[in-house]
Amino acid sequence: MTTKHDQEFTPGADWISAKLQYSSAASVLGSVKTPAKAASSRENGKRGGRPAKPISPTPKYFNPVCFVEATSRQDLKRRKPWVFEHYSVVVKVCGGYKCFEDVQEYQTWKNQK
To answer: Which strands make up the sheet holding 89-93, listed edge to edge?
Structure first.
């Protein structure tokens, strides 16, 4: 007994029904490009594009070691300015920055690699 999912795609089938057969309706409708969407994107670009991520508030308590997700030191300084005020060592790691309260904590972490 074959089910609807076992049937092969036939090249002569309607494009929309074929897309719906292999993906959800939302992904099909969301990928449609219209002149209205293009105009809206151009307007947003003129106004500066996507808004920046908000600056996080200074935490009440600090851990001796923390990880902060950021793309660059400049991004880190803009989004979390308290990092450079509180932590003495800030090191680039995969996916962000690792922050250490003192050099001894950093040396211990570095020697464990």
So the answer is: 65-68, 96-100, 89-93
User: For 97-106, what is each residue's pLDDT tens digit?
Assistant: 999 998 999 9
- Residue 92: its H or E element: strand 89-93
CB 100 within 8 A of CB 88: yes
Ramachandran bin of 48, using left for φ above 0, alpha for ψ from -120 to 50, beta for the remaining angles? left
Strand partners, 92: 97
How do residues 7-40 score in pLDDT, each as one tens digit?
A: 555 555 566 666 666 666 666 666 678 888 888 8
Distance CA 49, CA 64 (A): 37
φ, ψ at 66 (rounded to 5°): -145, 160
* C-alpha–C-alpha distance, residues 105 and 102, integer Å: 6
Torsion angle (degrees, nearest 10) of CA 36, 42, 48, 50: 50
Three-class DSSP category at 28: helix
Secondary structure of residue 16 in the 3-state scheme: helix
